[in-house]
Amino acid sequence: MLAGAMEVKISKRINDIIKRDGKVMLSTTRESFPFVPDHGDGDFIYDAAGNRFLDFSSFVSVYNLGVNANKQIRNSIKSQVDKLSHNAFTDYYSERPVRLAEKLIRMMPRGFGGRVFYSNSGTEANEAAIKFARIFTKRSYLMSFYGAFHGRTGGTLPLTASKAVQREHLGPFSNVVHAVYPDPYRNIFNLDDEGELSKACIDYIEKNIFAREYPRKEIAAVFVEPIQGEGGYVVPPKLFMKELRRLADESGMLLVSDEIQAGYMRTGKFLAMDNFGVQADIYTMAKAAGGGIPFGVTITRGSLGDIPAGSHANTFGGNLVAVAAAEASLDYVTRNMAALQKGVKKKGAYVMRRLQKMKENFEIVGDVRGIGLMIGMELVKDKKSKTPATEAQGEILKRCFYEGLVLLPAGTSTIRIIPPLTIDEKHLENGMNILEEVVRKVNAETTKK
Ligand SMILES: Cc1ncc(COP(=O)(O)O)c(C=O)c1O
User: What is the mean pLDDT of residues 90-116?
Assistant: First the structure.
């Protein structure tokens, strides 16, 4: 038990819930710690036994504005529920989803214009982007990157190349080719210089993919995460995105920025791609964009025009409850833009300072990286070999949980630090103290072995 931390007691009720779950639910990606959230109030979540946890996960980057904390979002949902929930928006007309689309388009880069399609999740937002890219270009192939996560449904799973288990028994996957994402910490080219690395990755596409596998004129779109999320919180060099944009332009491919995890102010900018000074042709968002309600959105560049009527639609896209949450959330973001930007920058810099010190002091902290409050700490057996320390990752997450701090993993040995953007600075400091103490202990135990 660390000084200032809460003592977490796992009650019989919690164990029972987990046991019942194991009997009736198909397995998903559950964490190894027994977390049964019951209610939340911003920076904290309380489990079904009343244990209090500080949130460094934003519930997988959904509660960017605090766990169930934003009153405007809650009230907006409540009042819409009392009026009308379902509006069959792809068949009938409705003002509120149109108003939200107008507001979302205003958040797009200058000159982008935009047309909007709503769905219910990240994978559906990307499914729509795949279809739109194919319709707009009349080409069928797609490109994405090793380490990418774009979803788990039929169209997006082929784009995803994060963990083999996600694809096992589900192939064959045609139509998608994977390129090398420029990971400055570990890359197959063994290049430390970020400029050289960027060029090597682009070269690889031109000399191998385009020249040997897929003629560039047949690729409809390249999907990219501005920062790879599930793949391990990998931040690519700025130059890489610029070169990718050039390559897309030269090849007539559309550039799709998957902003589902990195977007919506997580990096301090509404669009994570803006950190690279690059405009995409299609942006996809979900997670935080729905303010806690299932919501996905695909926004295409205005100059691409429209798709043929009847070529794509769904039942629940533009659902009024989801739109009520998304609109209230977006209104909050636009009203508080300056404060959010300043806060994310300051808090992100604080976390990075703390992590840099940990990297200096602890052998198992191999790399720390991020933009704004999208930060990863990669654990290794030792700094020289850089062998991923997957066991240490699980151990640290578990011990932090029992100290009252909730975190999530990414990749094979990275811990993501993604607290609500609105987190109180004192709470952020407390969380970092817990994390540091736990890493100190695990580091001492691991390096003693
Ligand atoms: C970058 C990215 N794209 C797509 C998805 C899929 O989103 P969903 O789980 O809502 O389908 C995720 C989910 O983690 C993601 O991080």
Answer: 98
**Is the CB of 254 within 6 Å of ligand 1?**
no
Mean pLDDT for 188-209 is 97
273-280: average pLDDT: 98
CATH 3.30.40.10, applies to 12-61+341-448: no
- For CATH 3.90.1150.10, list the domain ranges present in the chain: 12-61+341-448
61 lines ligand 1 (CB under 6 A): no
Can you give the pLDDT at residue 448? 74
Asked if residue 121 has its Cβ within 6 Å of ligand 1, the reply is yes
Q: How much of the chain, in percent, has pLDDT values that exceed 70?
A: 98
pLDDT at residue 260, as a whole number: 98
Using H for helix, E for strand and C for coil, what is the string for the chain? CCCCCCCCCCCHHHHHHHHHHHHHCCCCCCCCCCCCEEEECECEEEECCCCEEEECCHHHHCCCCCECCCHHHHHHHHHHHHHCCCCCCCCCCCHHHHHHHHHHHHCCCCCCCCEEEEECCHHHHHHHHHHHHHHHHCCCEEEEECCCCCCCCCCCCCCCCCCHHHCCCCCCCCCEEEECCCCCCCCCCCCCCHHHHHHHHHHHHHHHHHHHHCCHHHEEEEEECCCECCCCCECCCHHHHHHHHHHHHHHCCEEEEECCCCCCCCCCCCCHHHHHCCCCCEEEECHHHHCCCCCEEEEECHHHCCCCCCCCCCCCCCCHHHHHHHHHHHHHHHHCHHHHHHHHHHHHHHHHHHHHHHHHHCCCEEEEEEECCEEEEEEECCCCCCCECHHHHHHHHHHHHHCCEECEEECCCEEEECCCCCCCHHHHHHHHHHHHHHHHHHHHHHHHC
Fold of the domain built from segment(s) 72-335: Aspartate Aminotransferase; domain 2 (3.40.640)
> What's the mean per-residue pLDDT of the chain?
96
Distance of CA 390 from the midpoint of ligand 1 (Å): 22
Among 115-119, 372-376, 443-447, which is the least confidently predicted range? 443-447
Mean pLDDT, residues 76-103: 98
User: Which one of 118, 157, 261, 295 would you pick to mutate in the ligand 1 pocket, going by the greatest count of ligand atoms within 8 A of its CB?
Assistant: 261
Please tell me the predicted confidence (pLDDT) of residue 2.
62
